[in-house]
Design brief:
CATH superfamily of the largest domain: Regulatory protein AraC
Largest sheet: 5 strands, antiparallel
CATH topology of the largest domain: Jelly Rolls
CATH architecture of the largest domain: Sandwich
Shape: elongated
Strand content: 15-25%
Low-confidence stretches: none
CATH class of the largest domain: Mainly Beta
Number of domains: 2
Distance between the termini: 60 Å
Strand order of the largest sheet: 2-9-4-7-12
Length: about 290
């Protein structure tokens, strides 16, 4: 293969924005054109043959089922002509937010977020052999069909199909690069979010996830920089903040709804977390 692998990370929002799609066919002896500072991301999906392409000091031999994301501020060039008929889809898209290109070994930390911020870091390998390439082909064909429709009817459908392709890229990268600690920490996070209203303890998590409680705690500290119970506490308090804004419920009702059994303890935890009592927090929005 290939240039050494790197991980592309995009802090969202904003979201990557689909521009256009095309299908290129190279006969033996033809090659990808060289381009510099294209200004948009160029996402390649090889469906037949082998594409020999480089970016700065990296080079790839992309076979059927492989993807490559060419970056907007780099020099792209043909390493050598195609030796057989080669067919690939290409997608141009833009991204107005912050993005980085780094090594896979740098595992991101995901601290608890305020739910209404919807902040997320999309990440996927710059190049990969996609395990679910058949699903990707359906979306690529759909995007090609939409490209012939008028803009008003196709726009949202195009963006939806494009985001589905990015999801497949992210899932494909996770299937190989996610560490055991990352997988268990994310499973713990998902379980906490689903059952945060219940009386959760480390032993409950251990029984549900089939791992020793000490190992779960260690993985959560490594990935999320907090224990499972600290994550649970913060998640409950973030849910309480939403209920204070979105409902007229009493403090006692909200405390019970988010998993606190004693209202005074809830109020104490809330004040420590937010710097003010629950009612004062609500009054900010009246």
């Amino acid at each position: 293969m290939n240039g050494h692998s790197s991980l592309i990370r995009m802090e969202t929002p904003p979201m990557p924005y689909f521009i256009t799609i095309g299908l290129s066919r190279f006969a033996p002896g033809e090659q990808h054109p060289s381009r510099r500072n294209l200004g948009v991301f160029d996402l390649l999906w090889v469906v037949k043959g082998v594409l020999h392409i480089g970016e700065e000091d990296r080079q790839w031999e992309l076979a059927e089922g492989q993807t490559l994301l060419l970056l907007p501020d780099r020099y792209h060039y043909a390493v050598k002509p195609c030796e057989e008929e080669t067919v690939f889809y290409w997608i141009h898209f833009n991204f107005a937010g912050e993005w980085t290109n780094g090594e896979e070994a740098a595992a991101p930390v995901h601290p608890p977020r305020q739910p209404w911020m919807s902040a997320y870091t999309m990440q996927f390998p710059q190049s990969q052999m996609l395990p679910n390439f058949t699903l990707a082909l359906r979306q690529l064909a759909k995007l090609m069909e939409l490209s012939t429709e008028n803009r008003s009817s196709a726009f949202l459908k195009e963006q939806q199909s494009f985001l589905e392709l990015l999801r497949l890229l992210e899932e494909g990268g996770e299937s190989r690069s996610a560490s055991p600690a990352m997988k268990l920490a994310e499973s713990t996070e998902a379980y906490i979010k689903q059952y945060y209203q219940a009386d959760l303890k480390n032993e409950t998590l251990a029984e549900a996830l089939h791992f020793h409680p000490n190992y779960i705690v260690r993985c959560m500290k490594e990935i999320y920089d907090c224990t499972p119970m600290a994550y649970l506490q913060e998640y409950r308090l973030e849910q309480a903040k939403l209920l204070l804004i979105k409902t007229e419920w009493s403090i006692a009702q909200i405390a019970e709804e988010v998993g606190f059994r004693h209202t005074p303890y809830f109020s104490s935890c809330f004040k420590q977390y937010c710097g003010m009592p629950p009612l004062q927090f609500r009054r900010q929005f009246l």
